[in-house]
Structures are given as structure tokens and as C-alpha cells.
Backbone:
């Protein structure tokens, strides 16, 4: 039965076979000029794929891949020119061509991706890097050949056909690895970082580190492409490192189709090959057409040409399954020590004091509701509990550990899960993929395969079953209702198996039934499984039903902390909510 | 029926042979249509077009017409690689004859070797570029630098030289030679600074010139735009010491107008050369190009002569086969606007050099001339 | 003294080139990556005027009008649809820059051209001879800076622009026609860029790709400055000085990248740049 999935596989298989045939037999019928040009185009295609992995999949727009390529090419040429060309030196050149850009990529990554860095800043750095590299080349005098570049060094004795095949093989291997990776579970993490970096951190992973690692590895690949280029062309010039070349790579990727691997591959080869053939005859017209197409494409068809094809190949039907792993309840700690301990916590923004002198202890099994009028500081308190980098007075201890200076992912690792007021999930993924992401901090994802069965803790499975999502794991998140999104986020947080759950208005916008479901689940988690939960809520009926304890916040201060009865019947609460207690 | 087939076969063979004999000889001309050289490239193209037109009008070479294939090398290595690739492998030219920056020439040489075509380089350069297929009919530092330095030291009393150049093989090569020569004359080099080929902001270097107390400047930038920007900025800064420019041609000087006044240059061609060949050359150029004519200069005239030299070599070898042409080139000569030219000394040519000074209308007045200056030992292994 | 004048004139030139980009970034929050192309357009206006034999000063108003007109078209067709996709706006404007560059090449040819200086020669004062044109650049930058200060603080458009810079949604809710403000700002920014191109032309050479070299420097300065012209002036002065000093005492090549590198480092240390917190 020929369904979409099969068509996709068949297409890929055909591509693979034709690629192999072309690589092996190409030299017999392609002329010298074409072989030369295609060798170069294939090297550029490798670079375009690295751009796609960074930009199309991870959302990092980079103009800097040319710099890494140039470093690899220059490293190779410099070794071969100044040191020699024995086989040992070729091996050295290869190693240097991959290592130096890789280290450089680590540095660039460290500079670009840090807490609070914006995507625009990363793009800015990616612009500056090729400029710096080009100027370094210019100031290299005799070592780098400066404006002249390096020419005349010994290259691998492969001949035109040999280089064509070598480059073809490298490109094919890299493309296959890239495609396998982006389809695997680990590869989907890239899309998670692109969709919602904050949530990735709150699932216990370090998005900055992921981006740095990706940049470094891809820089090494660019360096390898540089090695191939230096040998195949015999000339290395400053233009190979420049940012104009870097922007050309982005243009080819955009036109080919970002986020598809195959799109940029063909985009790069197609445009470069056509350009070489046509630019002699219609140089300006050709560039004009490409430039114009590029602008139109960005505005009207951001997915590039490949998106025209993939539109018809969207795989629909669901095949992912769940399996529930039983979860042992957390023991209430023997010495009944608190899981969460807040002492004299204060937070101010300049002269405005949002929180002052908060003291609170929370133990396992408690379901504490945090109530108070708007502006009382509830969400700020949540933030101070989950992100240790906030500047605060006082101390917060989680499971005995002071969290000052800890990143969200560190705190998650301690055993905290946070559910946001607006469901923070991954909008471009399916339900199953979101759930998989939640398990990555516990089980390393496979970089090669996409598991068809997801193992989740029993409580999570229960949430999914109760809300009707257990049978539709392949449904895209973008099609879910508001209530289902909230439930999914809760399921993801619970899948982390945290000891403390922070929930910010979990019932906002839910129907009565949905509210009851959530309430039941939360009670079960705290009563039976030993979780502790802090809940910011406005629905006082809900609060009354499920909480074991209520804490009232007003104008940044903790005014009441007691059992449900105490608080509900208190005079203070009534006055606060009716607005009588200001000043 | 059989007769018809045989007749058809014979006719097509005959046609093919005739067609083959009519196959044009393709001359590849990679030149800097964009980038630093773009100021001078049009004059080079014009010189090439005139030579081809004249030769074709007189029956071509060995009965075949000449055809020019022009490509843009963007005045640099990366562009040259693409241009040479296209000319040698796609258009399959029989010979490459062109004026280019040293960066472009160096990048093109491996392709020349791979494709095995002869390459006549028609631009002055820093010397010592050697390849069995490479021939040069323009000057090298041994021919060009001494007249300028000697004049400055002996006639203008210069003692402190500041050297400015474009940072690539030509700029560095020329100034290294100049530095050696200056030191040998007993004068001093108080500064040596470079900008990348496409650089156009000389402010910092100009300030250094002022503070160094130099009483003479020698510059060697890429031909074309850098000359103009440097001169403009030097003049705006009020620097008026003796200024020797090793890389400017008469055409560029003319376009700079008043700012180029008093620049000293040393060239193998100036429009004022008083010879029958030069006069008829200039007349032919004016007739062909009219008001679009670009001033013939030391970068474009060698191009004109090189095409004639190639013609002579092909006729001597009897074919366009590279081996034959390469063997014939050192022994043929051509009497052109610069006199009798022959690339007989290790693939380089002895030349008559002229020391000139730019007048306020941009034309060049000849101050001194030196006949048949030897290029020295450029390629002892050829 | 020469050093001080070098620094001031370099800073002035950087300011003139970046001012247009800042106006657009501050109000529209996007980087116009075709800024270099507008510089080039202005420079070619100067070439055209010189070719026609008219007084070269006429190139200034001509360039402003041409630049603004083109800016209006660009804002409507390219920038507005990409309002919510700032990274894509960078790419689209970069593509536009390529298209403009190719159109210029098709019309004028790709060779390098030169324009006569608006003010030729050198002036001697305080024991130092300095280029009159560079001194004029300092004056021009001051006029520009003061002009913008007046525009922002003293006019209605300026007030609306400041509102949009601070909080566009609120401004719209208060009845300010933000679309018109955005259009007017974009046109002014591009007109200014073309003007800067005219002023640049006599200093260097004119070719279809001249703008690209200035784009990164301007871009980095604008990122450091944020949305304040005062901050831009400060940035130009500080980084311009660095560029000159490094060029003189170290190497002109390294000096050429001083602006870009120092700006990147500044942003890393203080993401708000020079803008007051």
C-alpha cells in the first residue's frame, strides 16, 4: 500500500542511488569544466548543510560559516606551503584543518550563546567573525599571502575525477548523517531549542551548551570542507573567508529550503553550477535574478523551494505508543526536613520592592496554594524559586541546597519542575515529541533513531489518559485546545519526576471538568506519591478543595500561612480581596 | 542511392575540413573588469580589440581568424580562479594573453599548467614568476625602480624615503626591491606601510608619513583605484614632497587631473614616444574608438604587442600547439609602439624605459630615457 | 593635533554613515541590511551630478530625495510584511541590497569611478595642515547630530517617534498613527544614508560594492547605541578613536576591524550598550 511514508522513503532512496551513480560514473561523461565546478559546488553544499542545521533547525541565523571554512582552507594551505607536502604533512593538514576551526567554533559559541543572549546578538557575532578572520589573513604578510592568497603548494595527487569522487563521497556521508540525526530523537532537540529555549532549560537541559556544541562540531565540518577545497582548487584567497561568501551560503540555504537538509544541498549545487556557467554570459542579470528571487522567497515562501515539495509529503498517521513505567512514591523524608525552605526572601526592581521578608517551609506531601490579589508578587516568587540567578535578598534552599546562582537547569536537576501560566511547550512538535523531550534529562536520546515507544512514569501516563491524549501522540501540538495544552505541560513537568512542582495558575481558562481532573491528579501526586506542590491560584473554590495549606501574599509580604479552614475564614483575607487593606 | 550517400559523405567531410580551417583561434583575456584594476581594464580591452581587428583584416593567423574571450577576474585570486577555469576549460582558449594583478596571475598559473596553454602576461610586476608556459613582455623592478630613485637621490637631494604599498606580492615585491636599492644609494628608508589591495582609507599611513619627516615618497599599490585614493588623500593632506609612483599608468594619471601633478613615474610606454609605430598606433586607436578611447598606457600597450608576438610565434611554429608556440615565443620579435620587443631573456623582455613627470593637465613629460634595459636574472631555470 | 583631528573626523564620518541606520533601528526595531546599498546610491548620485557638470553640492538634495523615495517603496513592500520576523527582515533587506547593487552595475558599469571633492585642498592652522574636506565632515556631523536632537525633542514627529521607540503598542492605542511614523522614519533613514554616500564619495572611490564595507561598522555602532543619538555619537567617538589609534600605532589592517570587534565585546559585557539603562 503506497502511503505517504513510503513515497518519502522511495524518494530518498532514489536520490541516494542517483547520487552514488553520479559520483562513481560522473567523471566519464562530464567535461573538465563541469567536474571542476561541481567539485567546488559540492564542497559549498556541505557548508550550506551546516548553515541549515544551525539556522533551519536550531533557529540560529549565522553568516559565519565562511570563516570556519576559510580557517580550514588556510590552515591546510599554510601547512602545505610552509611545512612541506609529505604524507605526514597532509595528515597534519587534515587534523589542523578540522581542529583549529573546531576550537574557534567553541570560542565563538561561548561568545554568542549565554544567559540572556538574544538571537540577534548571535547573528551579530556571526557577522563579525568572518570580518575578523579576513583581517587576520590580511595582516598575515608572507605567512598567509595577504591579498594574494596562497598558491602553488603541493596538493593531493588525485586528479579531477579523484577530487570529484572524494568530494561527492564526503558530501553524501555528511548529508546522510545529517538527515539521520535530524530525524532522531536527539535531532528533535534542535527544534525544541528553536521553539522554546526557556522550556528546554526548565526540562533540565542546557540550551547554551547545546548550541555551543553544535557550533563547534559544525565548525569542524566546515574545516574539513576547507581542507578539500584547498586541495581541489590549489588556491586559497581572502575572499574564501569573507562575510560576503557567508551571506551567499545563507541565500542558497534560504532558496533551497531551510530546515530540510536536502533543499540547501541542491540549492547550493544548483545555484553555484548555474552561476559558473551563466556568469560569463550574463553576469549581472544572473546575480540580479538570484537576489530578486531571494527577497521574494523570504517574504512569500520562507520555507524555500523544498517546502513546495515537502508540503505534499507530510506524514500523517500515528504510530507512536506509550508505555508506563511504574514510579515509586517518594518517601516522606525520615527527619521530616523541608523540601523547600525560604528565608527572608526579598526582591526589588530598583526602588520598587516586589517581595519582602518571605519565610516559608514546604515539606513532602504538601499541596500549598499561594493566593493574593494581582500584583502581590506571586509570579515573582515563583521565578525566584526556579531561577537562582535572580538577584535576591535572603536565601532559598531546595532539598538542603542553596540555589543562589544556580541556572534553571541546575534547579530542575535538584528535583524541581515548573509549569508556567501560559503553557510553555514546543509548538512545532507533536504530543509524543514533547513528552520525549521531558525525559531527555533522565535518559539520553538516541542520535540515530526515533523511538516509536515512549516510556513515561505512571502518573504522566495517567494524566494523558484522563485528558484523552494518550491515543493521539502524533497529533501536532498546534492543534490542541487550551485545556489540552495545559494538561500536556503538566504531563511534561510530571515526567521529570520532580520532588517539588511549581505551578502558575494551572487552571486558568479550563472548564470545570478539566479543573477537576487536574485537581484530582495534583492531590494524588502529593498525597500518594510524596510530591510537594506550590500552586499560584485565583480560583478559591479550587484552592479550598485540594490544598493542604494556604499561603496569602499581599503587596510582597506573607500575611497569612495556615490550613484551609484558618485562611478561608480569616478576616484579613476578606479585607485584602475586597481591597480594603492598602497602605 | 549509394552515390548520393558517398557524395553526401564527401561533401560533409569537405565542409568539415573547411569549417575546421575556419575555426577561430581563441585568445583568453582574463582582466580586472571589477575591483582595483577596473580603472585600467577598459584600456587593456581596447588595445586587444585593436590588435585582433588589425590582424584579422590582414588575413588572420595561418588563415584563421582571431577571437577574443574576455572574462572578469575581479582583480583578485578568487575571481581569477573562476575566470581562468572558464577560459581554459569551458571556452577552451588556445592562449591566455592578459594584464592582471599579481594575485590573479598567481592564482591562474596552476590552471595554465593543468590546461597546458601558453600565457603571455602583459603587466609590469614584481618579477621572478616562472613557469614554462609563462612569458612576460612588461617591465620588472630591475628595469623600473633605479631611474626614479636615482633621480630623487641625485637630482632632488632626497635622503629619507617613506614607502607605501598594497599588501600583496606586487606591492611587497616592488618595495622590497626599492628598499634594497635605496639603501645601496646611501639614503634611508624611514617607513614602510601597506594596506590590503581593496583598502581605501590611507589616513593612518598619511599621518605616519607626516610624523616621520620623510622627504620623498615611493608608492607601489595595485594599478588603478588604490593609486587614485592614495593620491587624492595625500594631496588633501597637503603633502608635496617628491612622489614617485611605481604603479601608476598614464591613463590613471590623466583621470586624476590636477592632483597627479608632479608625480614621477617610470614606464616602458608613454604616449609621447616619438616613433612611426607609436604614431600609427595612436591614430588607429583614435579612429577605432573615437571619443570612447581610453588613453593607451604602460598596461595596455604591451597587450597590443603581445597579440602580435603570439601571431609571430604561431606562424613560426606552424600551429597553435602549445609546445611549438612555447618554443617559438622567446625567439620572435615585434616592432610596436614601444620599439622592438622580444621576450628573449629567460621569458622576459629587455625594454627601453622612460622617466616621466606628470604635468598639470595629466599628461606625462619625459625627463630621461634609458635604452634596452636588461631585466636581470628573472628565471634562471627556464 | 593631527591625531585629534584624525579621531574627530573619523568619528564624524562614522556618525554620518550610521545615523540613518540608527533612526530605522530605533523606531522600527529592524536592521536595514541594505544600508550599504543606499550609501552606494548616494555616491552614484554624486557621480551623475558630476557627469552632468552641475554644481556637485546639488548631489546632496538629489541623493536625499532619491534615497527617501526608494525607502518608501521598500518599507511598503518588503519591511512591512516582515514586521513580525526581524531576522527574516535582515535577510530580505540584504537581498534587496544585492538587487540594488546589480541594478547599479547594469546601469553604470562595474568599474571604479571618482568624484571631485566638494571642498578641495588643505587648510593650515595651529601649525598643522589638514584636509579641508575632513574638517567639513566634522562640521557636517555636528549639524546632523544637532538636527536630530532638535527633530526628536522639538517636533511632533519627533515626539511620536520617541513614543513608538518606547512602546509601540501603547502609542498605537493612544491614537498615534504608528504606520505613518514607521514609514516617515524609514524614508528619513534611507534618505540620510544616501546623503552620507554623497559625502563619502570624494574621500574614497565609488564602485557598486563600496557600501558593504561600511555596513558592518555602522551596524555594530547602532547595536551598541540602541536608540539614542547621543549614545551613537559617544560610540562613534570612542570606537573611532580606537580605530585611528590602532591603525597608527599598530597596523591599519587590525585598525580596520577595531570598530566591529570592540562593539561585539561591549555588547557581551553590557548588552544594553551605551544606552542609558
Residues:
Amino acid at each position: 500500500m503506497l502511503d505517504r511514508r513510503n513515497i518519502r522513503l522511495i524518494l530518498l532512496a532514489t536520490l541516494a542511488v542517483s547520487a552514488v551513480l553520479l559520483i562513481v560514473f560522473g567523471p566519464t561523461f562530464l567535461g573538465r569544466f563541469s567536474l571542476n565546478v561541481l567539485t567546488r559546488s559540492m564542497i559549498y553544499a556541505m557548508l550550506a548543510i551546516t548553515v541549515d542545521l544551525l539556522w533551519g533547525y536550531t533557529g540560529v541565523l549565522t553568516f559565519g560559516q565562511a570563516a570556519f571554512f576559510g580557517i580550514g582552507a588556510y590552515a591546510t594551505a599554510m601547512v602545505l606551503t610552509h611545512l612541506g607536502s609529505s604524507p605526514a604533512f597532509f595528515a597534519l593538514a587534515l587534523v589542523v584543518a578540522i581542529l583549529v576551526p573546531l576550537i574557534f567554533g567553541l570560542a565563538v559559541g561561548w561568545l554568542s550563546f549565554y544567559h540572556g543572549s538574544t538571537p540577534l546578538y548571535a547573528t551579530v557575532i556571526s557577522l563579525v567573525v568572518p570580518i575578523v578572520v579576513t583581517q587576520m589573513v590580511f595582516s598575515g604578510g608572507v605567512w598567509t599571502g595577504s591579498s594574494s592568497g596562497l598558491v602553488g603548494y603541493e596538493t593531493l595527487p588525485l586528479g579531477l575525477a579523484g577530487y570529484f569522487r572524494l568530494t561527492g563521497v564526503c558530501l553524501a556521508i555528511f548529508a546522510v548523517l545529517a538527515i539521520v540525526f535530524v530525524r532522531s530523537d536527539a535531532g528533535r532537540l534542535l527544534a525544541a531549542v528553536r521553539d522554546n529555549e526557556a522550556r528546554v532549560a526548565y526540562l533540565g537541559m542546557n540550551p547554551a551548551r547545546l548550541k555551543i556544541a553544535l557550533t563547534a562540531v559544525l565548525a569542524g565540518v566546515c574545516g574539513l570542507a576547507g581542507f578539500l577545497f584547498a586541495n581541489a582548487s590549489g588556491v586559497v584567497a581572502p575572499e574564501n573567508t569573507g562575510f560576503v561568501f557567508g551571506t551567499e551560503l545563507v541565500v542558497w540555504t534560504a532558496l533551497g529550503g531551510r530546515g530540510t537538509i536536502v533543499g540547501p544541498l541542491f540549492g547550493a549545487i544548483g545555484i553555484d553550477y548555474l552561476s559558473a556557467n551563466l556568469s560569463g554570459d550574463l553576469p549581472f542579470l544572473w546575480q540580479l535574478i538570484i537576489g530578486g528571487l531571494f527577497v521574494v522567497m523570504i517574504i512569500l515562501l520562507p520555507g524555500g523551494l523544498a517546502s513546495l515539495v515537502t508540503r505534499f509529503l507530510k506524514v500523517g498517521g500515528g504510530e507512536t505508543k506509550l508505555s508506563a513505567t511504574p514510579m515509586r512514591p517518594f518517601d516522606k523524608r525520615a527527619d521530616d526536613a523541608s523540601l523547600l525552605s525560604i528565608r527572608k526572601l526579598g526582591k526589588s526592581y530598583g526602588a520598587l520592592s516586589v517581595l519582602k521578608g518571605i519565610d516559608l517551609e514546604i515539606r513532602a506531601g504538601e499541596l500549598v496554594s499561594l493566593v493574593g490579589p494581582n500584583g502581590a508578587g506571586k509570579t515573582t516568587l515563583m521565578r525566584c524559586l526556579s531561577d537562582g540567578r535572580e538577584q535576591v535578598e535572603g536565601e532559598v534552599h531546595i532539598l538542603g541546597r542553596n540555589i543562589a546562582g544556580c541556572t534553571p537547569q541546575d534547579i530542575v536537576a535538584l528535583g524541581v519542575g515548573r509549569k508556567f501560566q501560559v503553557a510553555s511547550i514546543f509548538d512545532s512538535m507533536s504530543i509524543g515529541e514533547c513528552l520525549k523531550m521531558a525525559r531527555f534529562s533522565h535518559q539520553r536520546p538516541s542520535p540515530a533513531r526515533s523511538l516509536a515507544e515512549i516510556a513515561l512514569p505512571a502518573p504522566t501516563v495517567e494524566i494523558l489518559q484522563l485528558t484523552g491524549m494518550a491515543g493521539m501522540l502524533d497529533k501536532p501540538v498546534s492543534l490542541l485546545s487550551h485545556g489540552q495544552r495545559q494538561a500536556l505541560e503538566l504531563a511534561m513537568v510530571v515526567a521529570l519526576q520532580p520532588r517539588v512542582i511549581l505551578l502558575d495558575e494551572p487552571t486558568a481558562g479550563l472548564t470545570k471538568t478539566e479543573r477537576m481532573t487536574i485537581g484530582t491528579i495534583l492531590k494524588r501526586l502529593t498525597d500518594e506519591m510524596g510530591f510537594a506542590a506550590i500552586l499560584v491560584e485565583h480560583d478559591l473554590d479550587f484552592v479550598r478543595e485540594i490544598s493542604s495549606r494556604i499561603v496569602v501574599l499581599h503587596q510582597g509580604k506573607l500575611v497569612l500561612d495556615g490550613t484551609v479552614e484558618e485562611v478561608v475564614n480569616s478576616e484579613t483575607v476578606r479585607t485584602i480581596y475586597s481591597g480594603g487593606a492598602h497602605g | 542511392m549509394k552515390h548520393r550517400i558517398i557524395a553526401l559523405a564527401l561533401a560533409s567531410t569537405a565542409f568539415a575540413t573547411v569549417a575546421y580551417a575556419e575555426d577561430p583561434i581563441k585568445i583568453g583575456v582574463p582582466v580586472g573588469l571589477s575591483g582595483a584594476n577596473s580603472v585600467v581594464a577598459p584600456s587593456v580591452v581596447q588595445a586587444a580589440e585593436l590588435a585582433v581587428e588589425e590582424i584579422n583584416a590582414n588575413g588572420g593567423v595561418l588563415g584563421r581568424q582571431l577571437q577574443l574571450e574576455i572574462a572578469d577576474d575581479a582583480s583578485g585570486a578568487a575571481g581569477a580562479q573562476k575566470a581562468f577555469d572558464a577560459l581554459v576549460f569551458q571556452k577552451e582558449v588556445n592562449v591566455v594573453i592578459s594584464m592582471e594583478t599579481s594575485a590573479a596571475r598567481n592564482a591562474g598559473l596552476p590552471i595554465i599548467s593543468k590546461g597546458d596553454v601558453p600565457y603571455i602576461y602583459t603587466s609590469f610586476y614584481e618579477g621572478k614568476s616562472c613557469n614554462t608556459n609563462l612569458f612576460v613582455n612588461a617591465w620588472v623592478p630591475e628595469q623600473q625602480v633605479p631611474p626614479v630613485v636615482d633621480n630623487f637621490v641625485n637630482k632632488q637631494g632626497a635622503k629619507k624615503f617613506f614607502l607605501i604599498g598594497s599588501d600583496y606580492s606586487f606591492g611587497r615585491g616592488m618595495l622590497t626591491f626599492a628598499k634594497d636599492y635605496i639603501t645601496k644609494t646611501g639614503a634611508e628608508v624611514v617607513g614602510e606601510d601597506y594596506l590590503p589591495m581593496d583598502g581605501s582609507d590611507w589616513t593612518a599611513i598619511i599621518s605616519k608619513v607626516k610624523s616621520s619627516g620623510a622627504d620623498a615618497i615611493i608608492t607601489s599599490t595595485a594599478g588603478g583605484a588604490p593609486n587614485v585614493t592614495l593620491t587624492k588623500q595625500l594631496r588633501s593632506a597637503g603633502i608635496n614632497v617628491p612622489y614617485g609612483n611605481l604603479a601608476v599608468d598614464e591613463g590613471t594619471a590623466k583621470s586624476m587631473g590636477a592632483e597627479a601633478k608632479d608625480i614621477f613615474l617610470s614606464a616602458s610606454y608613454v604616449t609621447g614616444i616619438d616613433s612611426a609605430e607609436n604614431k600609427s598606433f595612436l591614430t588607429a586607436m583614435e579612429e577605432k574608438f573615437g571619443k570612447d578611447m581610453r588613453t593607451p598606457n604602460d598596461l595596455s600597450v604591451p597587450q597590443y604587442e603581445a597579440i602580435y608576438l603570439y601571431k609571430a610565434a604561431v606562424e613560426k611554429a606552424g600551429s597553435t600547439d602549445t609546445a611549438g608556440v612555447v618554443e617559438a615565443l622567446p625567439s620572435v620579435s615585434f616592432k610596436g609602439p614601444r620599439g622592438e620587443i622580444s621576450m628573449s631573456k629567460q621569458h622576459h623582455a629587455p625594454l627601453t624605459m622612460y622617466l616621466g613627470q606628470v604635468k598639470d593637465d595629466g599628461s606625462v613629460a619625459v625627463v630621461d630615457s634609458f635604452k634596452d634595459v636588461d631585466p636581470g636574472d628573472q628565471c634562471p631555470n627556464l | 593635533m593631527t591625531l585629534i583631528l584624525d579621531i574627530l573626523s573619523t568619528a564624524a564620518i562614522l556618525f554620518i554613515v550610521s545615523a540613518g541606520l540608527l533612526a530605522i533601528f530605533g523606531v522600527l526595531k529592524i536592521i536595514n541590511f541594505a544600508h550599504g546599498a543606499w550609501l552606494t546610491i548616494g555616491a552614484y548620485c554624486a557621480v551623475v551630478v558630476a557627469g552632468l557638470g552641475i554644481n556637485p553640492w546639488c548631489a546632496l538634495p538629489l541623493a536625499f530625495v532619491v534615497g527617501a523615495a526608494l525607502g518608501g517603496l521598500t518599507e511598503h513592500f518588503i519591511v512591512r510584511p516582515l514586521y513580525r520576523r526581524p531576522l527574516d527582515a535582515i535577510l530580505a533587506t540584504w537581498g534587496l541590497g544585492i538587487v540594488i547593487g546589480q541594478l547599479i552595475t547594469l546601469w553604470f558599469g562595474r568599474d571604479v569611478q571618482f568624484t571631485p571633492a566638494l571642498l578641495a585642498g588643505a587648510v593650515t592652522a595651529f601649525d598643522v595642515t589638514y584636509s579641508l574636506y575632513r574638517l567639513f565632515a566634522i562640521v557636517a556631523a555636528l549639524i546632523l547630530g544637532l538636527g536630530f536632537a532638535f527633530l526628536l525633542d522639538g517636533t511632533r514627529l519627533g515626539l511620536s517617534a520617541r513614543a513608538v521607540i518606547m512602546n509601540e503598542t501603547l502609542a498605537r492605542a493612544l491614537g498615534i498613527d504608528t504606520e505613518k511614523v514607521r514609514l516617515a522614519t524609514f524614508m528619513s533613514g534611507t534618505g540620510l544614508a544616501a546623503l552620507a554616500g554623497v559625502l563619502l564619495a570624494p574621500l574614497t572611490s565609488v564602485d557598486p560594492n563600496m557600501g558593504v564595507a561600511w555596513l558592518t561598522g555602522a551596524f555594530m555602532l547602532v547595536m551598541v547605541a540602541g536608540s539614542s543619538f547621543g549614545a551613537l555619537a559617544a560610540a562613534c567617538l570612542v570606537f573611532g578613536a580606537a580605530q585611528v589609534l590602532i591603525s597608527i600605532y599598530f597596523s591599519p589592517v587590525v585598525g580596520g576591524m577595531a570598530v566591529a570587534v570592540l562593539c561585539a565585546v561591549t555588547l557581551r559585557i553590557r548588552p544594553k550598550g551605551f544606552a542609558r539603562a
About this structure: The first strand of chain A starts at residue 150 and ends at 151.
